[in-house]
Amino acid sequence: MHESIRIQGAKHHNLKDLNLEIPRNELVVICGPSGSGKSTLAFDIIYAEGQRRYVESLSAYARQFLPQLDKPKVDKVEGLSPAISLEQHTATRNPRSTVGTVTEVYDYLRVFFARLGRPFCPQCGRAIVAQSSDEIIASILDLPLGTKFMLLAPVVENRKGTQLDLFKKLKSQGFVRVRVDGEVVPLDQAPELDKNKKHSVDVVVDRLVQKDNVRKRLADSLELALQLSSGRVMVSEIGGKETLYSTEAVCTQCGLSLPVPSPQLFSFNSPQGACQACSGLGSVEYFEPMLVAPNRGLSLRQGALIPWKKGNLLTIP
Predict the structure, then answer these.
(1) How many Å from the N-terminal Cα to the C-terminal Cα in the chain?
(2) Pick the residue with more confidence: 238 or 103?
(3) What secondary structure, in 3-state letters, does the chain show?
(4) What are phi and psi of 170, to 5 degrees?
(5) Domains of the chain by range and CATH?
(6) 90 vs 63: which has the higher pLDDT
(7) How far apart (Å, rounded) are the C-alpha atoms in residues 285 and 273?
(8) What is the rounded distance in angstroms from the CA atom of residue 271 to the CA atom of residue 107?
(9) Do the beta carbons of residue 244 and residue 234 sit within 8 Å?
(10) What is the model's pLDDT at position 210?
(11) Which residues is 10 bridged to in the sheet?
């Protein structure tokens, strides 16, 4: 792909053998006095040649439904892409009419971002990836052979309380160990927690060693861990790093949950995608108090409200 659009020998209309190089992927303004050839360059050469080449790349059947533009009088044009042209008189006052809707590219962009987009946490910037159980298992099995690790289910994260009821419940369910504030302890020896301080509790679901026949046990333990912690599981390598996995679109660092990307999320005509401040219109309507009542010293009868002076008269008893 060329880095610029190169035009050589443009003689169309009032252009006199013009040679020009226009950078791509930048905002370029063509200015000059009336009759200097601005519209000729923009519409009759750049747009017309780009559109003509695009139409020629289509099948004969598709070309019959598209307008055919004349080839401009120019020696050579390089670096063109399929072009879109919007003239001034096609502008509309409808706030829901944009360049994307007029050119009909908006619907394709919504599908493009919904299907190929990767969500990131707006708080910490981490990528948010939802993984299936099979994908989590495959990732864990990539650990080197002989790696010792624990499968943890995060059940309490930075919450106040003694968690006594939780410990009793876990013990009745057959669990033996928990990790409290980063320290693994037997449930029988769980420390008394200060109810006024925040604590984190992870259930030790299983302790494993990476080897060839570990998949079945890993799958069973993973399923149990995901059930305990609503779709999240922590893999803690002994003496190594920790990795948090999630089957939901949740930031593993901040816990922020995001909806699954869909075309509706990228539509300003949809309640899911419209800005909450402007409702997708791009502008917010409000009134300026000083324009409504510029003279605060007047009464309503004296005409304090300017809008009441216009149109029909209003009698105030």
Answers:
(1) 76
(2) 238
(3) CCCEEEEEEECCCCCCCEEEEEECCCCCCCCCCCCCCHHHHHHHHHHHHHHHHHHHCCCHHHHCCCCCCCCCCEEEEECCCCCCCCCHHHCCCCCCCCHHHHCCCHHHHHHHHHHHCCCECCCCCCECCCCCHHHHHHHHHCCCCCCEEEEEEEEEEEEECCCHHHHHHHHHCCCCEEEECCEEEEHHHCCCCCCCCEEEEEEEEEEEECCCCCHHHHHHHHHHHHHHCCCEEEEEECCCCEEEEECCCECCCCCCECCCCCHHHHCCCCCCCCCCCCCCCCCCCCCCHHHHCCCCCCCCCCCCCHHHHCCCCCCCC
(4) -65, -40
(5) 4-78 (no CATH), 133-246 (3.30.190.20)
(6) 63
(7) 20
(8) 16
(9) yes
(10) 92
(11) 18, 74
Nearest Cα neighbor of 136 from 207, 208, 215, 230 is 215
Residue 52: count other Cβ atoms within 10 Å of its Cβ: 16
The predicted-structure confidence for 239-248, as pLDDT tens digits, reads as follows 878 888 888 8
Question: At what angle are helices 133-141 and 215-228 packed, to 10 degrees?
Answer: 130
pLDDT band, residue 317 (cuts 50/70/90): very low
CA distances from 73 to 13, 43, 76 (A): 8, 13, 9
Question: For residue range 276-308, what is the model confidence (pLDDT) as tens digits?
Answer: 888 888 888 887 888 878 888 888 777 777 776
Beta bridge partners of 244: 234
Are 249 and 258 a contacting pair, CB within 8 Å?
yes
pLDDT of the residue at 89 = 63
d(CA 12, CA 10): 6
Report the pLDDT value the prediction gives residue 134, as an integer from 0 to 100.
92
Give the strands of the sheet with 74-78, arranged side by side.
Answer: 18-23, 4-10, 74-78
CB 143 within 8 A of CB 212: no
What is the number of alpha carbons within 13 Å of residue 87 lying toward its C-beta?
8
**Bridge partners, 77 (sequence order):** 7
Distances from the Cα of 26 to the Cαs of 159, 229, 269, 315, in angstroms?
50, 49, 29, 59
